[in-house]
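Obj.: predict assembly geometry.
Materials: sequence records (below).
Method: joint structure prediction, all chains together.
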Amino acid sequence: MAKFMDVHHDMVGITAEQMQEAHQADLAIERDEGVHFERAWADPESGTVYCLSEGPSKEAVLRVHERAGHPTDEIHPVPLSV
Amino acid sequence: MAKFMDVHHDMVGITAEQMQEAHQADLAIERDEGVHFERAWADPESGTVYCLSEGPSKEAVLRVHERAGHPTDEIHPVPLSV
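Observations (raw structure tokens):
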């Protein structure tokens, strides 16, 4: 298992409720891929959302986002943290 | 006070020890700007580092990074989180 940070750039105007719904949509199916979405942070003005997850691969994380209806292809493994 | 996520792209090969040192350099001076660096996540392979902070403005956060020796200009306020 590894940690990942992925980034979405197309969520201009996202509300707290929409963000919660998107996160719940990930949580509802993440087990299928052995992934867990831990946290997410959003900038509604620029439409940028950062998601911190744990999972077996980049591809597994991105498949969960895609199936949940908010695909992205920008993701980095983040093995180091403080 | 607001939350911010900033991103560095020039830290290829960063080690856990170097990341800890960089974070400590921020913590040592952050009070001057009323900023607090909470967490950071790094991908040594691409050189990408994400930093989560709290502070009065983008500029205050970036001034701390610059004075600590690792400037960046990529930063977003992240008022929403899950």
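Conclusions so far: Chain B touches chain A through 26 residues (CB under 8 Å).
To do: check interface contacts against the pulldown list.
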